[in-house]
Amino acid sequence: MAPIISIRDLTKTYDGGFTALDGVSLDIEEGEILALLGPNGAGKTTLISCICALVSPSGGSVAVGGHDTLTDFRAARSLIGLVPQEVSIEPFETVENTVKFSRGLFGLPPDPAHIEKVLRALSLWDKRSNRNMELSGGMKRRVLIAKALSHEPRVLFLDEPTAGVDVALRKDMWDLVRSLRAEGVTIILTTHYIEEAEEMADRIGVIDSGKLLLVEQKSVLMQKMGQKELTLHLAAPLADLPAALADYDLTRSEDGQALTYRYDTRAQRTGITRLLADLAAAGIAFRDLETRQSSLEDVFLTLVDEGARSTTQEGAA
User: Fold this and answer.
1) DSSP secondary-structure letter at 192?
2) Same domain, yes or no, for 217 and 236?
3) Do residue 171 and residue 284 come from a single domain?
4) Can you give the pLDDT at residue 79?
5) Which residues partner with 290 through β-bridges?
């Protein structure tokens, strides 16, 4: 099956010479949730803007549902719903009319049943007659999502959808995203909340300095790059690490009550058995131990750091 979105060698350089996208290629499959992670200025919003044909790329191509976004703009754009970062809606219009108007912009006939379904899913039905200016910030963001869903798109872009939204509303949005995916909608989200990507995404893409560093299944990414930490809670405080343990990646807690050992889950041998034997030989006893798997945030920071070092080395060369 052909991907719903196909991006090839996409570049964007602005007039001042700043390169926001640098040869991005990516296929996005129908019905998946893809999370794009990256620091501020990494190129996430520019990438979305190029796919949605809001920004003209300097090179490369984008196709949505087989339609080129430049030569077949209307057909491509009709498949896309976009929820931007900025909350910008007509303040004096009602919620219901705002969403109806967005549907009409795509040349679709009125469909009160669909509008009601969208508003109910977003807990906006009881506020359908309210003017937008009367809503809280979180509810205004829900109106943006309702507008994006008004024309029944096959692809939904969520650019920082839960920025400034409280925890309860964030969870409701997560539930909505899952229900949309169950209906076959492809969802691409950018987020600064690592736990959001970890909770919802099927695949994770990491972008930095306009380059796509990696796109991988979330579970595979964690398995490939995940590390574990073994924390040993000692029977007695340890003032200093013995020289015999210098070869281990050990960190002593400030109070000397615990030792933390980091090891690679991909390695054939973790070194734990040898470590425990050497601890016993050094007369160090422990009363308890626990392990912790590295989080997606740990993996993300590692990738961005490696990407930054690579860029620096290229510039030096």
Assistant:
1) S
2) no
3) no
4) 96
5) 231
Q: Does residue 313 register a pLDDT over 60?
A: no
Burial class (CB in 10 A: 0-12, 13-18, 19+), 254: exposed
Element (H, E) at 59: strand 59-64
Q: How confident is the model at residue 297 (pLDDT cuts 50, 70, 90)?
A: low
Q: What is the extent of the structural domain holding 176?
A: 5-222
Question: Do 140 and 177 fall within a single domain?
Answer: yes
Which value, in Å, is the radius of gyration of the alpha carbons in the chain?
A: 25
Residue 313 lies in a domain: no
Model confidence, pTM: 0.73
* Claim to verify: residue 171 and residue 211 sit in the same structural domain: yes
CA-angle at 214, arms to 212 and 219, nearest 5°: 145
104 is a domain residue: yes
**In-domain check, residue 300:** no
Helix axes 95-105, 137-149, angle to 10 degrees: 30
Tens of pLDDT along 193-245? Answer: 777 777 788 998 988 889 998 898 887 776 665 667 789 999 999 988 888 88
CA distance 45 to 253: 41
Burial class (CB in 10 A: 0-12, 13-18, 19+), 288: exposed
CATH code at position 88: 3.40.50.300
Can you spell out the DSSP letters for 161-184? Answer: TTTT--HHHHHHHHHHHHHHHHTT
Locate 188 and state its tokens.
Answer: 């691409």
